[in-house]
Amino acid sequence: MDTKIFLLIITILTTVTFLLSCSPMLETDIDYSDMENNEDETTNEEQTEEESAWQDIPLTNINTQATFTIKELTQKPTLIETFAVWCPTCTRQQGIIHELLEEQTLDFNALSLNIDPNEDEVLIQEHIEKNSFEAGTYAISPTTLTQALIDQYGITIASAPQAPIVLICPNGNSELLQNGLKTANELTQALESC
């Protein structure tokens, strides 16, 4: 083997090994304790208030320009879908939710919450009009809200192509539904569980 090729291969392998060893995503000694329910001196009621504080962050309905909070929506079962307009899976999921809203067989609210910081109201409004999504509520998630959702439900909530949806019941219980595109039947079952 030529010496130059050998040295090139060694350099590449060394660089790759170095990069892999520096990658935080591949660390095996990550401390996950701050991501779990810590047993500290706060009561369950205090933890619930802290965990749901994000529901009081003011949002603007893109269709009506009215200000609202997620807490106001949760008087009924509420689906919160995080999305980006560039995401085809999100658009398909919004279509399924839109059909359920138009059927009016279930009494629920739906919030499509845009989490892409590069998208604005004009782009989202074009998305709504292009896809005829008149039903439901659309808003842009402030960074603080997106971070609070990540803190409570994990990073998946900020991965638009995984079609993340949080179900919030009127009693305050909430859950992140299974990743991936959810069928109308799966969403109906989730809403009926409230």
Walk me through what this model shows:
With 194 residues, the chain is an alpha/beta fold. The chain has a single domain, classed as Glutaredoxin, CATH 3.40.30. The strands form two sheets. Strands 5-4-3-6-7 form a five-stranded mixed β-sheet, covered by helices on one side. Strand 6 and strand 7 form a beta hairpin. The protein starts with a helix and ends with a helix. About 18% of the residues have low confidence.
Quaternary structure state of the chains depicted = single chain
Order of helical and strand elements: HHEEHEHEHEHEEH
Within CATH, the superfamily carries the name Glutaredoxin
Q: How many individual domains?
A: 1
Number of helices, where a helix is a run of at least 4 consecutive DSSP H or I residues: 7
Integer-rounded radius of gyration: 21 Å
Structural class comes to alpha/beta
Give the N-terminus to C-terminus distance in angstroms: 68 Å
Q: What is the percent of helical residues?
A: 40-55%
Mean pLDDT: 79
* Total E-strand runs: 7
Shape: globular
Strand order of the largest sheet: 5-4-3-6-7
What is the CATH class name?
Alpha Beta
CATH topology: Glutaredoxin
Beta-strand share of residues: 5-15%
CATH architecture: 3-Layer(aba) Sandwich
The largest pleated sheet is described as: 5 strands, mixed
Regions with little confidence, pLDDT below 50 for 5+ residues: 13-47
